[in-house]
Amino acid sequence: MSRCDFKIVLLGSEHVGKTSLVLRFVNCRFNGGTPYQNTIGAAFCAKTMQSNGKDFNIGIWDTAGSERYEAMTRMYYRGAHAAIVCYEPSSLESWARLRHWLQELRTVEEECKVYLCGTKKDLLDAGAVTREVPEDIVATYSQGHRGHFLTSSKTGENVDELFQKIVDDCAADMRLMKNVEELRLQLMKDEAIYKSKRKDFCSC
Ligand SMILES: Nc1nc2c(ncn2[C@@H]2O[C@H](COP(=O)(O)OP(=O)(O)O)[C@@H](O)[C@H]2O)c(=O)[nH]1
Ligand SMILES: [Mg+2]
Prior knowledge:
It holds the Pfam family Ras. This protein is α/β, with parallel strands linked by helices. The protein has seven helices and six strands. Helix content is about 45%, strand content about 20%.
């Protein structure tokens, strides 16, 4: 089974920590020492996760974030089941951009489950940066969405929790699960047809 059951997209300003979040989650590592590498267009990762004892393949699209690539980014969040919209609590600019993505998502992908993610928690905890985005404003905005997580890709804090909540929410969504089951059945039928055809033509 190679196709994805759930499609997750990461949105947010450049440098906010989207790629680091995906790398921490998928590879359990953090590349703090390496120079910043801008994501071009988007990158894709896949991982198998469990919810309620069942396996699900999740596909994660990490987008570029810069305005330069905005039209392209739209292509990636079309059909997404969930979106992680990132901001840095120490940057009002990144919060303004998050609000922009929330508006976009609401108009384009009504069904998409939205999760707000404040990044680089370790820097806040260590006092290396100061919070600029007030907590009460974040709480107000979070109410209309599936949740808010304050994560650190450096320590890993709350990263697995965020992705697990997404998979649990998707797995509990009856309408979405109906589509997943139908697609799985179709895939099994297609595979069976392909295998029987290959057997017919195989001369060995
Ligand atoms: N201390 C710390 N730095 C982070 C964290 N996440 C990302 N960074 C750093 O922030 C910069 C931008 O991260 P990146 O993931 O490339 O951001 P993107 O442009 O949103 O994909 C990089 O230098 C990362 O090392 C974090 O949780 N803690
Ligand atoms: Mg990136």
